[in-house]
Amino acid sequence: MKKNFFMILSVLFLVAFTLPNASLAAIADGTYEVNYQVNKPGSNSASMANDYFLKPAKLIVNNGKMTMQITIKNSSWVTEFKPPGGAKVISTNESAGQRTVQFPVSNANLVTIAMKIDIDDIDYHHAYSVDFVFNSSGLPEVKAEEPKEPVKPVKEETKQATSTKESPTPSSGSNTSSNKPAPSTEPQKTESSAEQANTEENTDDSTKTDEENASEAENSEVVENPETSDELPLVAMILFIVAAIVFIRTKQTKTR
Known about the structure:
Blueprint: H1 2-18, E1 30-34, E2 36-39, E3 57-62, E4 65-72, E5 78-82, E6 88-93, E7 98-105, E8 110-119, E9 124-134, H2 156-166, H3 186-219, H4 231-255
Antiparallel strand pairs: 1-3, 2-9, 3-4, 4-7, 5-8, 6-7, 8-9
Helix pairs in contact: 1-4, 2-3
Organism: Solibacillus faecavium
Subcellular location: Secreted, Cell wall
Domain NEAT: 27-142
C-alpha cells in the first residue's frame, strides 16, 4: 500500500513541475486573422452555433492587451452574446443580417461564451454556452529587449585638459612691431614647457581613469536571472494535500 501511495505522490509532483512550463508565450503587438471553431463546451465536437459566425476572426494585440473581433452571420437569431468582460457592437450590416462584435480576451486559444438563440419561425428559444477555439499558433511572439550599453559620461577634467592642450602657449604668440627691446623668451619657454608637460600628464591620467572606469562598469554588469514561476509552490502544496487525503481515506477503509 505504501508503495502505491508513493507512486501516486511522485506522479502528482511530476505534473506540478510540468504545468508551469506549459504557459503560453506573449503575442507581439499587431493585428492578426485567426481561424476558429465553435465547439460544445468541454468537447472537440462542433456546435450548431458554429454556422452562426463568419471566419476568420480578427485578433488585435496592443501593449500586451488582446481584443477579439467576430462577425455574427444570423444577427437576428443571436439575441444574446456574453463573453467574459462583455461585448461591444462595432459595426452592423442590416441587409446581410450581420453584426461585428468586439470583446477582450485573456487567452488567445480558448474563450467560453454564453449565448442565446431565438428563432421565431421554428419556435426555437434556447440559451447555452459554447467554446470558441482559436488557432493562434504561429503568431509572432514578443522578443526580449536587449540591454542598452550605458552612456559613458565625459569628465570635466578631460574636457579642460583637451581644451588646454589645443590652446596655443604664451610662447607661440605672434611678434608685434615696436621700438621697445624684445624681452628674453627663454624663461617663458621653460615655464610653458613645464605647463604643457603637466597638462599632458593630467590628460593621460584622466584618459586612463575613464578607460578603467569603463572597464569596471562593463565587468560589474549584473546578468538577470530568468524569472521563475510563482505558481509552482502553491500547485505542489495542493497536490501534496490531495495525495495525503487519498492516503488517509484508503488507510481508514482498509482498517474497517
